[in-house]
């Protein structure tokens, strides 16, 4: 008897620890969780998993309960006679074959239904269209109907279905925003689709979920779910980031891509210029002030001189396709750099510019021999790109 109370006492001593461990699994501590769905798509998967879990829990309790009961109720004592020998019981065997078969059927129906629901692509008429391009090792997001491009942080409106068309510029990746949807591989020369309707505003992590090279683990992204109004505001603002920054000299060298996909400046500017209310909302609020900053001006020169411009576009509007590096039109406003890898502070940005290889070994951005002072200027320049 005292053995059992002993075990009980030991267990209660561990309860607070277990409680703390359970609390540590909360989305606040592990935000990359699929167990707290906040979209219609994620709920389909979560329902299947919850249903399966409760069936499994029931089976576990019944089987372990029966086992424990049998162990204690029929345990042998030293002088017991030999128990009766039996070869089995056909009725019981039929029962424990039929019941699991029925349970599997109960699980299979919602599972198959979920597979079809998530594979079906909803009509795009009312959806926001987003193109996703995987790169080693970052994510490109294009909004074809809005004419804007961004990288590593995809903004979406709450309450509107987002329809993703996805591909890759190089190897196979997998797009996975765990709180919104399951993993979806992206392939070269083949389009995959994904959709979901976000239910809660906030910033959520996403991750590449298919091994794609040495920095696969640092191919993350952020989902910025916003109220419809905030999203419209963001779009309107991004649509002003089509021209070179206010301080740049005429000639617009900035928008020319190394890939040869030079985009004519005039149409882009004209297109966004017609948008009422969009024009004044530029970085121009910050840029002229920033332009007075000698560091900004020096950074701008360096951005050209060091060849950053060969791989990175600073235009959100009609950004050239096929850029090697992420679009930097609003890099100053992003929470992370290095594809969701490092907090976007002046310090990390400066370190990155000076030695990206030290932070993300194998990244396609080479060390350009940028000196600390130069990095400071480049940070000032990029920070103004919000
Ligand atoms: Cu991209 Cu793993």
Number of strands: 12
* Percent in helix: 25-40%
How are the strands ordered across the major sheet?
3-2-1-5-8
Distance between the termini: 70 Å
Poorly predicted ranges: 245-286
Query: What's the total helix number?
Result: 10
Gyration radius (Cα, Å) is 28 Å
Overall body shape:
elongated
The small-molecule ligands in this entry are:
dinuclear copper ion
Strand content: 15-25%
Question: Strand count, sense and closure of the main sheet?
Answer: 5 strands, mixed
Structural class category: alpha+beta
Mean pLDDT rating: 82
H and E string: HHHEEEEEEEEEEHHHHEEHHH
Architecture overview:
With 386 residues, the chain is of the alpha+beta class. The protein is built from ten helices and twelve strands. The strands form three sheets. Strands 3-2-1-5-8 form a five-stranded mixed β-sheet. Strand 6 and strand 7 (184-186) form a beta hairpin. Helix 7 packs across helix 10 (372-383). Bound molecules: dinuclear copper ion. The site of dinuclear copper ion has 9 residues, from loops. The site of dinuclear copper ion (CUA) has 9 residues, from loops.
Layout of helices and strands, plus pairs?
Layout: H1 2-23, H2 40-73, H3 90-119, E1 128-135, E2 138-143, E3 148-151, E4 153-157, E5 161-168, E6 173-176, E7 184-186, E8 192-197, E9 202-208, E10 220-226, H4 228-238, H5 265-273, H6 287-292, H7 294-305, E11 336-337, E12 342-343, H8 346-354, H9 356-359, H10 372-383
Parallel strand pairs: 1-5, 4-10
Antiparallel strand pairs: 1-2, 2-3, 5-8, 6-7, 6-9, 9-10, 11-12
Dinuclear copper ion binds next to loops.
């Amino acid at each position: 008897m005292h053995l059992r109370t002993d075990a009980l006492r030991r267990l209660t001593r561990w309860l607070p620890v277990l409680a703390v461990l359970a609390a540590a699994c909360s989305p606040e501590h592990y935000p990359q969780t699929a167990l707290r769905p906040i979209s219609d798509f994620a709920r389909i998967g979560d329902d299947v998993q919850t249903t399966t879990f409760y069936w499994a829990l029931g089976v576990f309790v019944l089987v372990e309960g029966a086992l424990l009961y049998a162990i204690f109720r029929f345990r042998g004592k030293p002088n017991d006679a030999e128990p009766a020998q039996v070869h089995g019981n056909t009725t019981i065997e039929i029962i424990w074959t039929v019941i699991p078969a029925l349970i599997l059927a109960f699980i299979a129906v919602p599972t198959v239904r979920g597979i079809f629901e998530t594979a079906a692509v909803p009509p795009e008429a009312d959806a926001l269209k987003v193109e996703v391009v995987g790169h080693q090792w970052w994510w490109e997001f294009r909004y074809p109907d809005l004419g804007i491009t961004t990288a590593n942080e995809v903004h979406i409106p709450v309450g509107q279905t987002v329809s993703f068309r996805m591909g890759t510029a190089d190897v196979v990746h997998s797009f996975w925003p765990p709180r919104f949807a399951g993993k979806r591989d992206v392939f070269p020369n083949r389009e995959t689709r994904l959709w979901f309707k976000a239910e809660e505003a906030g910033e959520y992590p996403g991750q590449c979920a298919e091994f794609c090279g040495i920095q696969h683990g640092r191919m993350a992204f952020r989902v910025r779910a916003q109220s419809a109004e905030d999203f419209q505001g963001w779009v309107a603002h991004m649509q002003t980031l089509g021209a070179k920054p206010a301080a740049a000299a005429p000639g617009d060298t900035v928008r020319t891509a190394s890939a040869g996909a030079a985009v004519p400046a005039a149409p882009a500017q004209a297109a966004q210029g017609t948008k009422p209310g969009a024009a004044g909302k530029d970085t121009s609020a910050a840029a002229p002030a920033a332009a007075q900053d000698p560091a900004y001006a020096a950074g701008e020169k360096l951005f050209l001189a060091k060849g950053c411009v060969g791989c990175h576009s600073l235009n959100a509007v009609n950004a050239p396709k096929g850029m090697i590096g992420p679009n930097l039109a609003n890099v100053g406003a992003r929470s992370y750099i290095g594809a969701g890898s490092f907090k976007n502070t002046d310090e990390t940005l400066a370190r990155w510019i000076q030695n990206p290889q030290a932070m993300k070994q194998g990244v396609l951005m080479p060390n350009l021999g940028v000196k600390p002072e130069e990095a400071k200027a480049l940070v000032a320049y990029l920070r103004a790109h919000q």
